[in-house]
Amino acid sequence: MKSKRNSSLDPIFISKWRWTYFLDQTIKKVSIFEPIPYPIKNDFLFRESFFGSSSNPKKVILETWALKTEKIRQARCACLQAGETTSVMNLVISPFNNYDLPFFGADFVTLPNGHLIALDLQPVLKDDIVHTKYFSEKFKSIHANWQSKLPSGGDIPLEARQYFSPGFLWSRIPLGAEGDQLIREIIKPAFDDYLNFFLDLIANAKRISLERSSKLLIGQKKYMRYRAEKDPARGMLRGFFGNEWTEHYINNILFDLQ
Fold first, then answer.
1. CATH class for the domain made up of 20-254
2. What is the pLDDT of residues 209-222, one digit of tens each?
């Protein structure tokens, strides 16, 4: 199948993709910032492959939505559906480094054994009080409200902790009716709260000094290198689309500030 998408801002249409609501909300709310397409070649806007047995092949589709604005260097969402059971949304919003802003990250993954939910405003400079103090207290209260209604996602690897905030929402929830209810009643409004809070920060952000911008750029690059090196989807993407395509996609599309 050939995609009709020629721009990173063209709509995503993937049959049975579980996470449509979340991308639709992002598109709607970011529209006030007058976005333009983020440049992505057609081979990475849409990718299709097949897996499973030759007698019963299953389709996998990956589409990438992306934009940029005056204050957002790149907002991009990787949207994947593989057969009936695997559905992935990986959304990262990266501000320009001349604004003292965190990253926005949402990683929602449906696998045969359950849903993984990760949602955060990830600090560029976690130990820099100037970078975190102006939003941390309100953000912690937003997190506490929603995390209390969800099961824990378990321990976070030690090396990864420096890239998450105290407001990191992290959960593992079951498939079926219970998981569907949690997504509908908890994950959707939690996502809206996190995104609204982040976009308010974007709207009110003021340009900072060149010296401060340089410090933030170093932090942003460190974060992007870590995400590219440790991307947990690498093995799955290689299996679906091959090593060369996957490495280009991870390093030059998903985490391209290195």
1. alpha beta
2. 999 999 999 999 99
Query: Which residue is associated with the tokens 């957002």?
Result: 72
pLDDT of the residue at 198 = 97
Q: Is the sign of the CA dihedral 113, 175, 249, 120 positive or negative? A: negative
Residue segments in the chain with a per-residue pLDDT below the cut of 70: 1-2
Structure tokens at 44: 């990475």
How far is the C-alpha of 229 from the C-alpha of 110, rounded, in Å? 22
Instruction: Report d(CA 140, CA 118) in Å as an integer.
Output: 15
Contact 137, 158 (CB under 8 A): no
State the Cα–Cα distance between residues 109 and 91, nearest whole angstrom: 11
**pLDDT per residue over 44-67, tens digit each?**
999 999 988 888 889 999 999 999
Please enumerate in sequence order all residues whose Cβ is within 8 A of that of 252, keeping only pairs 6 or more positions apart, or say none: none
What residue type is assigned to position 102 of the chain? P
d(CA 205, CA 77) in angstroms, rounded, equals 23
Backbone angles phi, psi at 19, to 5 degrees: -100, 25
